[in-house]
Give the backbone structure.
Amino acid sequence: MLNLKFIQENKETVIERLAVKNFDAREAVEKIIELDNLRRTLQQEAEAKQAEMNRTAKAIGQLMQSGQKEEAEQARRETAELKNAIAGMNDRRNEVGAELNALLLRLPNMPHASVRPGKSEADNEIVKVVENIPQKHGDDLPHWELAKKYDLIDFETGVKITGAGFPLYKGLGARLQRALINFFLDENIKAGYQEVQPPLMVNEDSGYGTGQLPDKDGQMYYVNEDNLYLIPTAEVPVTNIYRDTIVEGEKLPVKNTAYSACFRREAGSYGKDVRGLNRLHQFDKVEIVQITRPEASYEALDGMVKHVEGLLVKLGLPYRIVRLCGGDISFTSALTYDFEVYSKAQEKWLEVSSVSNFEEFQANRLKLRFKDKGDKKTTTCHTLNGSSLALPRIVAALLENNQCAEGIRLPEVLQGFMGTDIIR
């Protein structure tokens, strides 16, 4: 959520920066300022009437003591009228506050000054491409055929059990999932992240806290009877650990990592790009989350980008790093770098990670602050998160890029987890 005071004092800046995200914010921003001013006016009027009521109530006792009963009764009537008027003003102020909050919740985060305008992923900026892009050979198979050939993933049985987008991993396919999860977690822990194991369902407050609600309401699986949501990423429960929290300044940065299953409806996703593991409704992902001081968040972002890059280097996967334009960056993010790996058999780039700085946008919603020792003032934190990494397209690229006549050769870093150097 954008800071209300900042909006009041920098209206045109907010409108201009949100235009980079192709969001026309003028009407919403002007309405927010109007409602905020009205709320302040109602507050001031209510306080003035409360002060008047207090004075009148105090006078009643004095009037009674002096025998002025008629005047005392009149004062009582005035006090009752003032009380009703104050209640009405408070009710109206609450209505205005609710309307104001609803508008603020639908206002995206402002993009960082380095984010350039653009309409879609076609306008993203490629900031790095590795040189070892593999060439497709005539007999190379896509991962869904390799998965069937080596009995790793059963897409058809997944459809029978649940539906499309819910694959069944088998044998060495299931073991490869576990190997990747353990490898990612171990590497994240070495980098100073504390592992947590979060719930796979969250309440509405958690969804609002990290910005999935109301923006992504239709993309999340919802359990109506319990008013709970299946998580689209571990970012949601992990970041919400710190909702309504004042962190001790000397403990920053806070660094957590978590593995979880992720659930996304992916409504409206159809066509060849969703085949196999390319786009799923349930998938596994390891996440990293940081909570930092505002002045340290972009240094933290750079560190997270280098960390994710290091994982791909150790897996031996060809990758590129992309800085997202305004039209492709998320509702909550100020700056995002995507990592994509090259799929040899499909001859395309597959996104496997997004690493984002949300600045204070999530922290404002979460009421997440920090305070230094001996300081009475609290300061809003910055939050960041990144996929480290999402498994499905990593698996797709590993299968396709490492296929050979003998089978599928495994990266050295996974061989200990797998108990073999090749899938036959």
